[in-house]
Structure formats: structure tokens, C-alpha cells
Amino acid sequence: MLTAPLNDLGWDDRWASQLGELNDEQLIAGRVAAQHRGVYVLWTELGEAHAELAGRLRHDLEIGAELPAVGDWVAVRPHPSGATTIQAVLPRRTSFSRKENLTGSTAQVLAANVDTVLVLTGLGEDLSARRVERYLTMAWESGAEPVVVLTKADLGDVSDALRELQSVAIGADVHAISNVTGDGVEEIGGHLAPGKTAVLLGSSGVGKSSLINRLAGSDVMATREVAGDGTGRHTTTHRELIRLPGGALVIDTPGLRELQLWTAGDGFGAAFDDLEALASECRFSDCAHVREPGCAVLAAVDEGELELDRLRSWRKLQRELEAIAARSDRRLREARKRRWKQHTRAIRKPKW
Which of 96, 137, 221, 238 could be joined to 209 by an S-S link, Cβ 3.0–4.6 Å? Predict the structure, then answer.
């Protein structure tokens, strides 16, 4: 059970002000450390608590209310019976979200209120610049600082892999590390600070739990050995907030087989800043970068300054985001319409 002052967990006067705006002196603050089948593990000033959602919060989920996620600060009500209920999710400062499934129109928040997003990709078959582009798009959109980490550097020469990652990690630091030898891990620690939170993201077996163990200086997370071909074996089964000995907080996550984008306004532009800069030089402001004359983007491809695959990825992600926005708007409109009809029927229903 973790016992630490709330300030050591990231709490500050701004959070306190938001809690006070709820005008309920019985509410206390808690930070979501984990979730297990609808029960949330919270860190509070009273120690660790297990809480469930209040009925009203659960009722409002359909029309866009936030479901608590690991890293969230929540307002909770302790009951004399010993039970604890989550009454509200305090406004998030950052959140890393993805589309819940291939056909869905709702978001799944993977981590909330994080300061740094560590995007892990392994040397070898796991390395994919296209996947890293997706992670970076969502990382920039979250409001946190993205850092790209190339793991398993002990398996071979990392020069080409680093160049490939640096070509897509516009504005983000890129580091190569080995969880086996410890090389490069100290540099990752430089992105962490007491009371600040980082989330580790990447595919299964890429070394997220092993990196946490390295940063912690002990085995705080269960791991399994890397297979002979260099591929990892997934061990993390749920998202969990962990406090490192130095005071920094990290969120470990299960491996992501895929990352379906949810929303990416400014994040999309930041992840593809090189393409956005080229597009601003096109002859026509509404250039689609397909076959228009005077297209600076196509010229960069022809001259070898821009990879064609990166342009294709840019177009693909644009189409995904447009489709998601349309489905999400339609779902919320329909849910609010149903709620209004239920409210109207309740008002008109005779009371005798």
C-alpha cells in the first residue's frame, strides 16, 4: 500500500481549486492507480482505497461523461460503511486516448495527466516508423512531451534504426537503450522528475516492464525472458501507476497490437511538421498533394527529400481522423437526443 503526501503524486493548488468548485466538503481527492473489473484502486490522503463509480456518473457516461482512467485525479466520497465512490473526474490536463475498437465511435483513455509519453519500439522486427508516427501523433495531441525509445540495443547495430526513427520523430528526442546491459537507461531517467508522470507505450514484449525495473533499481514489475529471436514476451495485463524511488511516477501499459487514432488536431500537425511546412509552400492553398501543379510536397518526393511512404501515411491518417470525427459526432447527437426524449417523457408522465 502506497502512503505519500498528495503533492508527491502530482497534486497542486490548481487541482485543489477544482475539487473545491464541487462545493462538497465531504469529498476528498484520489489518484487512480489501477482498475480491475470496474473497481478502481485509488491513492488518497487516507491511504489506498478501492472505489466504484457513483450511479450518477455511470448514468452520464452515454452522453460524454469521462470514465476514470489510470492517472486521473477524482473526487471521492468515503462512506461510514467503509465503501468509497467516485463522484467526479477532475478536468484532465493531458490524456492519451485511442479509438476503442476498429468500428467504434468512443475513446479509450490509456493514461491521464501525464507529462511525458515514452514511445518504445524494439530493434529488429518490432521496428516500424509507421507505427511510431501513430504514437507520436497521439502523444503530441495528448499535451505531453513525447520521447522515442529504441530498446534491445544490445542485439545489434542501432545506427540505421536511429536514423529511421529520427526522420519521423520531429521535435522529439530519440534514445537507444538496452535493458540487459543498462546502456542508455540513465538518459531516460533525465526525462523523469519527482511528482511528474510518464506513460510507457509500445507493442507486447518491447521492454516496458523491464525498463521500469531498471529505473526502479529492483524488480517491481513481472517480466519474462526475451526469446532467442529477440522478440519479447508480454507480461503486463493492466495499466498501473507506479512510484519510482526518486519520486517520479510511471504508468505501465499492456502491449498494444494496434493503435487506432481517436482525435488529433494540433497533434497531427506536430507529428507531421515537416509535411505541414512543405504544404504551406504549395501553389494552391487547397492543394490535395495528389497531382496538382506547383505542389511542394510532391516535388519533395520527386527530389528524394521526402519518403513516399511518409506521404502515404500522412494521407491515411487524415482519412482515419475525418471518419472518426464524423462517427463520434453522430453518436453523441443520437445519445443526447435519446436522453432528451427520456427527460421529456418523465416530465409529461402523470404523477397520480
Answer: 221
Distance CA 176, CA 206 (A): 13
Does 304 share its domain with 211? no
Residue 161 has pLDDT above 50, yes or no: yes
Q: How far apart are CA 201 and CA 250, in angstroms?
A: 11
- Residue after which a domain boundary falls, among 188, 218, 252: 252
Look at residue 41 and give its three-state secondary structure.
strand
Contacts with 141 (C-beta within 8 Å, 6 or more apart), sequence order: 263, 264, 265, 266, 267, 268, 270
Q: What is the pLDDT of residues 233-243, one digit of tens each?
A: 445 457 899 99
Looking at 252, 279, 297, the residue that finishes a domain is: 252
Amino acid, res. 149: V
pLDDT digits (tens, 9 = 90+) for 189-246: 999 999 999 999 998 889 999 999 999 988 877 665 544 444 444 454 578 999 999 9
Q: Closest by alpha carbon to 99, among 258, 260, 326, 256? A: 260
Count of structural domains within the chain: 3
Residues near 73 by beta carbon (within 8 Å), at least 6 away in sequence: 10, 11, 15, 29, 30, 31, 32, 89, 90, 113
Q: Please, are residues 268 and 137 in contact by the beta-carbon 8 Å criterion?
A: yes
- Structural domain boundaries, residue 54: 6-89
Handedness of CA 19, 35, 138, 233 (dihedral sign): positive
Which of 91, 68, 73, 82 lies closest to 28 in space, CA to CA?
A: 73
Are residues 220 and 105 part of one domain? yes
Residues 136, 30, single domain; the answer is: no
